[in-house]
Design goal:
By secondary structure, the chain is α+β, with helices and mostly antiparallel strands. Helices cover 22% and strands 27% of the residues. The protein has a five-stranded mixed β-sheet with strand order 1-15-14-18-12, with no helix packed on it. The protein has a five-stranded mixed barrel with strand order 2-3-4-9-8. The chain has a three-stranded antiparallel β-sheet with strand order 13-17-16, with no helix packed on it. A hairpin with a 2-residue loop joins strand 16 (297-300) and strand 17.
């Protein structure tokens, strides 16, 4: 056992607008054009990991919503049962009233309105060049102040309940997903929302098979008409299947262990877990077990399950 100490993280408030057309958003990731984007991009580049920031010619950056993992709507050509519902639920919440999509890659071809105003509370830039942030509707939540810096407590007390993250967890349209960079006060509040949605069997929790188990024959087993599972586990299963494995080759767990490495290429994530214990994020220094994701996978033939409640996991940042 070792204590998991989760950080205090300042967030920078940036006002701007959400754009959909010519992009492929999903339930936890979309494009955001900051207002006064030259100075805003400079502020984003100054965040932890800012040297990895990617942006388009229009100044748009990709926002990855902090604290959640939404069902996939278009992961390497496939999707989860609730992927489109999660995406559409997020976009409706933001204020989009109509969206048209290109079927094969879920690229948005038209939408109404053309953009919506939003405020991003950004904390860092991840290994994929995405801005990790909470997203608020409009520009009024921070008094219209762009580029203000907010601490953990201010966000928890004034803004978290108004965020897209909170909405998606409360409605069951996303799973709680914690990395060791998330402030502990936020993690506890968000986990509580996810647990409440599960108790009410809302959204993903009406059919989730992450712990009860699912049979992995092919992509259809976990695709749009298949089993709903924790999205990170879904992505690993898709990667395994698309690598060409069959029942005569390496098991999923063995394959996952074989893809353990350092940095961005590590598929066998480092995880802090407290199986069967109280929420490990309830305090800033709680005893945890540090393991690999493969250590938490149970496999019997083609039957796969996660042995630990996904709400009790904290993943290590890459």
């Amino acid at each position: 056992m070792c204590p998991l100490v989760m950080p205090s993280t300042p967030h920078r408030a940036l006002t701007g607008r959400i754009v959909l057309t010519s992009y492929s958003p999903d339930g936890d990731s979309l494009r955001f054009i900051p207002r006064a984007h030259d100075s805003s991009l400079a502020h984003l580049a100054a965040l932890p990991g800012g040297h990895r920031l990617r942006h388009g010619r229009d100044g748009a950056v990709q926002i990855r919503l902090q604290g959640i993992d939404a069902p996939e709507s278009h992961y390497v050509g496939t999707s989860q049962p609730m992927g489109v519902r999660a995406r559409d639920g997020l976009l409706r919440w933001l204020g989009f009233t109509r969206t048209d999509w290109r079927p094969h890659d879920q690229l948005c071809t038209a939408c109404e309105p053309a953009t919506v105003d939003a405020t991003a509370l950004a904390s860092q830039v991840d290994v994929h060049g995405r801005v990790i942030a909470y997203l608020l509707r409009g520009h009024t939540a921070t008094g219209g102040a762009s580029q203000a810096v907010l601490d953990d407590i201010a966000i928890a007390e004034r803004h978290l309940a108004d965020s897209a993250t909170h909405h998606l967890l409360e409605t069951g349209l996303a799973y709680f997903l914690a990395y060791d960079s998330i402030p502990p006060t936020h993690a506890l509040l968000l986990r509580e929302r996810a647990a409440a949605a599960r108790t009410r069997r809302r959204g993903v929790w009406s059919s989730d098979a992450t712990n009860s188990g699912f049979t992995l024959h092919d992509l259809s087993s976990i695709g749009p008409r298949g089993e709903q599972i924790f999205p990170k586990l879904f992505r690993r299963c898709v990667d395994y299947l698309q690598a060409g494995h069959t029942k005569h080759e390496a098991s999923f767990r063995t394959w996952l262990r074989g893809h353990s490495s350092e940095g961005i290429d590590n598929l066998d994530d480092d995880v802090h877990a407290a199986p069967g214990a109280a929420p490990l994020i309830a305090t800033s220094a709680t005893p945890t077990i540090s393991v690999r994701l493969s250590d938490l996978v149970r496999e019997h033939g083609r039957r796969i399950s996660l042995t630990v409640d996904p709400l009790d996991l904290v993943f290590q940042e890459k």
